[in-house]
Amino acid sequence: MMVPQAPPPPSDEEKMLKIDNLHVKLEEEDKQILKGLSLEIPAGQVHAIMGPNGSGKSTLSYVLSGRDGYEVTEGSATLDGESLLDMEPEERAAAGLFLAFQYPVEIPGVGNMTFLRTAVNAQRKARGEEELSSGDFLKVVRAKAAELQISPEMLKRPVNVGFSGGEKKRNEILQMAMLEPRMCIMDETDSGLDVDAMRLVSDGVNALRSPDRSFLVITHYQRLLNHIQPDVVHIMANGRIVKTGGPELALQVEEEGYGDLLAEAR
Amino acid sequence: MNATIDLDVREGVDRETVETVQNMGSYKYGWDTEIEMEYAPKGLSEDIVRLISQKNEEPEWMLEWRLEAYRRWLTMAEPKWAMLNYPEIDYQDQYYYARPKSMEVKPKSLDEVDPKLLATYEKLGIPLKEQMILAGVEGAEDAPAEGRRVAVDAVFDSVSVGTTFKDELAKAGVIFCSISEAIREHPELVKKYLGSVVPQSDNFFATLNSAVFSDGSFVYVPKGVKCPMELSTYFRINAENTGQFERTLIIADKGAYVSYLEGCTAPKRDTNQLHAAVVEIVVLEDAEVKYSTVQNWFPGDENGKGGIYNFVTKRADCREARAKVMWTQVETGSAITWKYPSCILRGDESQGEFYSIAIANNFQQADTGTKMIHLGRNTRSRIVSKGISAGQAQNTYRGLVTMHPRATNSRNYTQCDSLLIGDKCGAHTVPYIEVKNTSSRVEHEATTSKVDDDQLFYCRSRGMDEEEAVALVVNGFCREVLQALPMEFAMEAQSLVAISLEGSVG
């Protein structure tokens, strides 16, 4: 029993995620956060974004997934050629976008399993697919949970309530595995993880890598990139991508810090 | 039902809920049925009371009981202490008796039954065999059983139109019938217990009910008998300008057990309709009664027009030692709700529980809660109330816990949570606590919270639309109470929670 995928990928020429000259400000404070950010991720690739605190990394992930409170003043963001910015958050999800939250939200009283099933079926319905029966759903979720060492007991507990930091992040990856998005954004998924949890999460992500699925991994540290090998590394500062390179760029940051890189970019 | 499904339903929103939210435009039960009705003339007088009594073929003592109540009612004033705002009710501008004409002659087969009556039950989701029985088809009891095993007594406007599984219940010694039938067939039980929990003069609405109640359900579970199936009453107000005044009397004799479900619907009307019911429960030594309500009367439209005025007196008397009663209510309907299902814990070591979800949306007003009157020693009570307000609604929890001097070593625990959706609604908590001995303990916890934007965004980023997200979060908030409901009701209640909150966000 496989959860069917979103529509097949477009031709090689087209990038899966395409962000062009994106300008974003905070609605309440009238403060510009993204200042002309451009980025292209082809199908099947893993891109990492690294950057100092306050460079706008989390804002980028929220704007792409449609959180309230941000105003796009200029530029565009498309997924498979469709403009993301015109869609509601749930439409973006149904189109294949997924955000693994830096701080997963607690929902008291709602069982993790119920939450997952509601989400999976909402997306299937939005795509005109038939909903999964309880039996089929349980089979899939149990298998995927086992891979992430998520116990049946944790599946019954209310969503993220009383979960440890590591459990919350594993739970995000379980949602990713169940929803099978085409474009996964991971917002500092490594923060608060010990070595073992980091390995579990990375293994989970690596198992999901495929030619028609892309990842945007936002992180402070090179550490995570030892486990999830990126194809491309971007350095972000002051609301823009200031440098793009291969995996070696992450190693350079680890050794030298951002100082020289940012100075060079100026 | 296997364990897996069970688990899914109990954990929160079911698949059906989600479908329902998307498919339902508005109040699901808002159709009305055009059935030829027989009405008593409008207004209230001794003659009307006599007419109701006569229509029900009641004995003289019952008529006298009604008239006594009526005379008492004339001297009483409508209570005004609740946090409710509504125009003056004209008690002379109501019909006090209406019944479907087709009930005068019993039909012989389904073909002879008024098809509109059948369609009504179909919409209410009652399986066919039960429909046959309810429609009064002769021999329907012998048809093969299908579907769930819940005995139903359906009350259509003022009249009980049929009771299912009567014979099977009778084999166990359980009496389940309409109260008018009980008055005729079991006068000794009715005489002994009617008005013994809610006296004729209890309050304005209960007294009105005592004078004009037209029908309702009666249950007697004899000593040591565990009722073999769930009992259920389905109340429906159909006729326009008609008040509904049903009376329910449940008696659980020593060591008996019964679980009773009550469901309610009414059509959409522009005018307000009055509903003033009384439920009395007598629980004797070691007996246990569970009473669950899903109240889904028409709440009025989104501008506050129409809807049911629901003034209900429900009380259980744990009359002897170790008696136990549990009220569970899901209140989603009615324009006005005035309702405090209570427990009198008279027997030593008796227990009372109250689990409530009250949802008020648009212009609905709910003033609801419970009373726990501790009279016996070592008595226990537990109150879990979840109030949800949306739109411009006002939702009040009003509760009384008293520990009398004799009720030593007794305990109460109250948890009272309010959830607000939007910024134009209100939630109020009015707990009264009286402790008159030094060995008892009373705990009260209360919280008020808003539906959190982060929670909604998290759900939506996983593909749920806004209404699904709200329904999920609210069902989570209500979880403890939903879990206290019997299976069939839990499903219905979950969908109702979602439907009731439609249009409350955005």
UniProtKB/TrEMBL annotation, chain B:
Which residues fall in a coiled-coil region?
none
- Residues forming the SUF system FeS cluster assembly SufBD N-terminal domain are 170-227
Q: Report domain SUF system FeS cluster assembly SufBD core positions.
A: 235-477
Q: Which family does it belong to?
A: Belongs to the iron-sulfur cluster assembly SufBD family.
Q: What is this protein called?
A: Fe-S cluster assembly protein SufB
Organism encoding this protein: Paracoccus fontiphilus
